[in-house]
Every structure is written in C-alpha cells, then in structure tokens.
Amino acid sequence: MTQFCDLPNEIIDQVTAYLDLIEYHSLRISSTQFNFPLEPHLHWDAYLESTKAIYRRRFLPMAIPLLNDVYGPRVELVMAHKHYEIVCQSIRSKQFNPEIKRNILLMSLTQCVPQVLELLLMDPEVLINENYYLLKTIKKHLPTDCLQLLLTHTQLDPTADSNILVKTACKVGSEKHLELILKLPNVNPGADDNYSICYAAGMGYYGCIALLLSHPLVDPTARDHEPLMVAAANGHYQCLLLLLGDSRVNAGARNQSALKLALLNGHTRCLRLLEANLST
C-alpha cells in the first residue's frame, strides 16, 4: 500500500486537494517532505463541479489507501457527507480492513444507504451475526430495501430475542417494516403474551394493529383485553373501532373497565363507541 510520506510533494498536494474536495477541512496532513493545512476553496460550488470528475479519475486510487492507512477512524466523515461513491470503490478495491467495514456497515444502516450495504453483505470479511444490526434498521423512514437485504442474509435470525424485531417495528409504528417482517417464516408477533399489539394499541398505531390482527398468532384479548383498555385510556378512537370489529373482543371486559377509563380521561367519542358496542 502506498504510504503518504513516500509520495512526491506535487502528488501530496493533489491528493490533499482531493481530500479537501470531500470536505476534510479539519485535517492536517504531515509528511517528511511537506507540511501544510487544508483550507476551504474559494467559489466552492464552481470548483467542486469543475474538478470532481478529474479528481475522481486521477486521484481516487490514491485517496482510498490513504483513507484506510491514515484516516480509517475518520471514514465516517466521508459517509456523513454522502460521498458514497468513494466508500463503494473502497469496498470493491478491498482497501478497508474488516473493522472499518463493520463500522461502515452500521453507518450504511443508520444513514439508509442500500448501495453500500449491498456491497458489504457480499463481502466475506463482513460477519453479521448479531441482531443489533437488524434493530438499527428499524426506523420509520428507512427504505424497505435495506431491511430486505438484511433479512435475506443467511446468518440473521429475525425471531431472536423473543421476536424483538416485531416488537421494535411496533414501537416506532413502522407499518411497512412490520408488513415485511410478518411475511417471514417462524415469526411470532404474539410473543411475550401479545406485547406488540398491546404496545401498538397504547400508542395509537392503527396500521400496525391492523397488520397484527390479520396474523393468526395474535390475540387481541391478551392480558385480559389490555389492547382495548390502553386504546380507550389514551383516546385512540380509530384503534378502538378496529379492535371492536374483531369478534373476539368484548367491550364490557373487566367489568366495563374500558368505558371507565374513557370516561375518566374525558374521551367522549371513545365512550360512546364502547357504549354502543355494549348494547349489541
């Protein structure tokens, strides 16, 4: 691998300019022959557009080993500034060590970068055997293709930790991810005495409740009708309507506790809905 101190001053200047182009303003580059700070360029946008293609073609092969050799711990800056083409080429050229690849993997999940994630999942040096990575993907606005890439990886177990993947999707109210997870074999959304539907009902996640009710392993009457109780207590009218539409749910359960909770918290619409279902 090319060492920075072995490069001629002219090349150091050019590679430094490339690194500066990707916004490494805070770094200071030193060598046995040359020592100077990086400074922001004038007319930044124009400079960037006019030189990007040239620098990418001529100096990216040098910048990649330098990033690994000198700036490996700071590769998150490249990801933060969304210079994903540099990261992708680095992975393809096998310049990053396994530890840096694992860090990039986590960043590609949290920043929702499927093109980087896909390359890493094809790399045998990247071992994904912890559901921690799965949990990091469950964010409401994460594209489903990132989650799909992870779920198709053979080392991942979406049912681990008592189906925590389903629970996490419900905790953030992510319908699109929950729908994807429920299609997987052996997933049990009714785990831990139907924790998921109880939580979703308390938070008012209508879409998640609808998906859960369609699964045969989910029981809306679990914990003595807790989903009904928490929905009534929090005034989630649409969720109540959905739950009461299930023939298994009894509006008068627990000695009409749902009505009392709705009345106590001033949820008039929920109260009238529950009363109407008592008379049917």
Structure characteristics:
280 residues; 62% helix; disordered N terminus; two-stranded antiparallel ribbon; 2% strand; mainly alpha; elongated
Question: How would you describe what is shown here?
Answer:
By secondary structure, the protein is mostly helical. The protein contains 16 helices and two strands. Strand 1 (28-30) and strand 2 (35-37) form a beta hairpin. Helix 1 (9-21) packs across helix 2 (44-69) and helix 15 (253-264) packs antiparallel against helix 16. The protein is elongated, with a radius of gyration of 27 Å. The termini are far apart. Residues 1-7, 21-45 and 61-73 have low confidence and may be disordered.
Please compute the radius of gyration using only Cα atoms: 27 Å
Structural class: mainly alpha
Helix content: 55-70%
Widest sheet: strand ordering:
1-2
SSE order: HEEHHHHHHHHHHHHHHH
- pLDDT averaged residue by residue: 76
The total beta strand count reads 2
Strand content: under 5%
What form results from the Cα inertia axes?
elongated
Report the uncertain regions. 1-7, 21-45, 61-73
Secondary structure tally, helices = 16
SSE inventory with pairings:
Blueprint: H1 9-21, E1 28-30, E2 35-37, H2 44-69, H3 75-80, H4 84-92, H5 98-110, H6 114-121, H7 132-137, H8 144-151, H9 160-171, H10 175-182, H11 191-203, H12 206-213, H13 222-233, H14 237-244, H15 253-264, H16 268-278
Antiparallel strand pairs: 1-2
Helix pairs in contact: 1-2, 4-6, 5-6, 6-8, 8-10, 9-10, 9-11, 10-12, 11-12, 11-13, 12-14, 13-14, 13-15, 14-16, 15-16
